[in-house]
Amino acid sequence: MIQRVNDSIAEENCFPALASVPHCARGSLGLLLSFLGSAITETADGQLAAAQLNGREYSILSILETDGPGSQAELARLLGKVPAMVVMAVDALEERGFVARERDPGDRRRTRVVLTAAGRAALARGHEIADETVAGALPGLSAEERGQLHALLQRGLWPSAT
Amino acid sequence: MIQRVNDSIAEENCFPALASVPHCARGSLGLLLSFLGSAITETADGQLAAAQLNGREYSILSILETDGPGSQAELARLLGKVPAMVVMAVDALEERGFVARERDPGDRRRTRVVLTAAGRAALARGHEIADETVAGALPGLSAEERGQLHALLQRGLWPSAT
DNA sequence: TATTGTTATACTCTATAACTATA
DNA sequence: TATAGTTATAGAGTATAACAATA
């Protein structure tokens, strides 16, 4: 009995250098999504160092690329975090020249955070790393199947969006 | 521009009482899995209070149900956490009568953690809550499609397991 | 000597609160 | 008065280290 728990780690649950999803959580979709999310978050956070980013910074740059530039308060809301958090992250990104702060002319309280060329380059590398991390976390899926997964999740999250 | 970011929260990204997945993260599967995992983890953690559990305790009981009983050190490894963490969680679970500690006769250093009847009842309620949370987080998917998602993830994570 | 469970301590991360500037 | 950005402080959560018991 006890041995079986051990075996599930040793034999079935090893993708190298990746935080693991315990095989005994296989029965619950909620548990699976929760563990998989943590595993990908933590693994990517480490791997993204190769792009001079951490996970949060990669999220911020991605959001800016897709819908930006936005204010810092909006970034905080999107990330589900507190504005003070974003200030520090943007400070760090600005220091590396990945983003720049600009005063919003229409409302001088707001700070527009805009991607720089260096930021876009780091982000491009970050996308590659993120994709590799997902592929490594789901070794049983082909690129096409990962695409199906992506589409399924998009439809699940935002049914209205076509 | 800035307005668009706001709209994405207000119009597209609201499933009530659920931590949100920013729609602007839609382009990256890694980001999507990361945000969705966090959203489900945090939401379930709150909802599970109705079963007198938190997220970690639900994970522990689930693992015990599927592959248990195991030692506390094994639980720690499976959860990817430190043994001290498990000690406290099992303390709390034992206090509520959801698990019991038994000395392993074969190796008196080990403590077997076993589910009680009350623990199984709480876990059953927890499963319902977890399923509701997933359904709420993926409003665009039918029960059948959630089953497809589950199967896809299982195959992706453990290709060897049939 | 190594491992299990446990306790106590230290640290990291995040939220809270207070402040300035602008609306 | 309310909101954006910033800073400093406090708290929660987690890991680290040290210990006793058993192997």
Secondary structure elements and pairings:
The structure is a homodimer of 162-residue chains.
Chain A: H1 2-12, H2 29-47, H3 55-67, E1 70-71, H4 72-79, H5 83-95, E2 99-103, E3 111-115, H6 117-137, H7 143-157
Antiparallel strand pairs in A: 1-3, 2-3
Helix pairs in contact in A: 2-6, 3-6, 4-5
Chain A binds a DNA duplex (23 and 23 nucleotides) through residues 71-73, 81-87, 104, 107-111.
Describe what this molecule looks like in 3D:
The structure is a homodimer. By secondary structure, chain A is mainly α. Chain A has a domain of about 100 residues: Winged helix-like DNA-binding domain superfamily/Winged helix DNA-binding domain (Arc Repressor Mutant, subunit A), CATH 1.10.10.10. Chain A contains seven helices and three strands. The first copy, chain A, has a three-stranded antiparallel beta sheet. In chain A, helix 4 packs across helix 5. The first copy, chain A, is globular and about 50 Å long. In chain A, about 45% of the residues are buried. At the A-B interface, helix 1, helix 2, helix 3, strand 1 and helix 4 of A face helix 1, helix 2, helix 3, strand 1 and helix 4 of B. Chain A binds a DNA duplex (23 and 23 nucleotides) through helix 5.
